Amino acid sequence: MLIKAVKLSVISMGTLGLAGGLIFGRDLASYVSASAHSIRTSVKDNVPVEFELGRARDLLDDIIPEMHANVRLIAQQEVEIDNLRRDIDSSTKAVHEQTTQVQKLRDALATKNDSFSFQQITYTRDQVRDDLANRLENVKEAKLVLATKQRLLDNRGKGLAAAMQALERTRAQKSLLESQIAALDGQNRLLQATSIGTLSQIDNSKLAQTEKLISQIKKQLDVAERVLAHESKFTQAIPVETVTEKEVVSQADEYLASAKK
Prior knowledge:
This protein is 87% helix and 3% strand. A hairpin with a 2-residue loop joins strand 1 and strand 2. Strands 1-2 form a two-stranded antiparallel sheet. With 261 residues, the chain is mainly α. Helix 3 packs antiparallel against helix 4 (125-233). The longest helix is centred in the C-terminal third of the chain and has 109 residues, at 125-233. It contains five helices and two strands. It starts with a helix and ends with a helix.
């Protein structure tokens, strides 16, 4: 089943490739590349800005552990340099003392004495000569070692300075990027606020339509009220006259008189 599915996929891809080749010819590759680029651009354009800003903050946060590690390495290098300086100071002092002793033995051999007394101990001329040879060899080797340590100190000092400069540049760049992210975040919030304002204008237009409708309804009611007022003028009102008692009695007498006939 799996082999059959693979065969069908290969056949389908081959068919599509053949159809594309027949339609587009040599331009098929460029069409495929342009389509892929268009899809990537479309997907990237649809990524929310907030997501991209969060991704940028995460990338900066990932730098912090590396910065801490570099700070620790710099601290270790500083300790090693301090220890090396103390070692060089001690070695320099030892070389100076050995040079002084070589000078004393050399001055002794400059005389014609057959024996010499140092620290209340007497040495023959041959012993002084051999000791001078040994001390001279040792002090030369010590000076070579001291020169090597000094070069090592210089190299470590340069390396430390370069590391500190790199760390400082990283800190400055991180601070700059944080400021840029904050500025972009502010710009994004401003755009969102502007967008909300635009939506508010749509709502205001609806309110304006409602107010216009209410005004029209009020106008219709005012017209209807005036129509009723004008129609009431054409209605005959019931005349109301004041009748005295004398008139009423007289009218009643006239009626009764006529009724008897």
